[in-house]
Please model this.
Amino acid sequence: HELLVESGGGAVQPGGSLRLSCAASQFIFNTYDMHWVRQAPGKGLEWVASIIHDGSRKYYGDSVKGRFAIARDNSWNTLYLQMNSLRDEDTAIYYCARERAVAAGAHLDSWGQGTLVTVSS
Amino acid sequence: DIQMTQSPSSLSASVGDRVTITCRASPPITTDLAWYQQKAGKAPKPLIFGASNLQSGVASRFSGSGSGTEFTLTISTLQPEDFATYYCLQHDSYPRTFGQGTKVELK
Model:
């Protein structure tokens, strides 16, 4: 059964940086597009960023564009999220998720347990 | 960008009730929309993909329909384990966008 494990969360001051990792196992990582999704305390889900299976294309939500960078290392089966210029409103649980795309449609069929990022002075 | 408007934001229902949640897309999308269930403290779980396809292992009381601008998630007979928050997510284009969520609570 596929497994995604996030790490790297923690407390950071506004303006600081943090790098999240998501270790993937039990599936062929380099054949799947991957996503980061976050959830602020008591709020709904927010899509953050995506990266195509081979890393050739990346997409970002407006709220993080220019500050966050998504990357992957298919040799190490790991997804990353480099977060710079962090703001209070970036405080959230960050989930990595795998996208399964079939003829009928795509969906995020596997999720990590999430890692908490707290931005506060 | 595609905006997803989900309603209602919350609803109260009893075990055995039929529940319907709606997501509206603007501009219209294809059928590339998925529904997710989230329980407190847990990661979301996929229920429906391609607007109407049931994810493997999901109970058949869940169903989805729609295309273009209006999509619905229906729970035919609400069970105790279905009290949770539900989200739609359009997979039609980037940036991806979630609906605001619908919390299903016990009446």
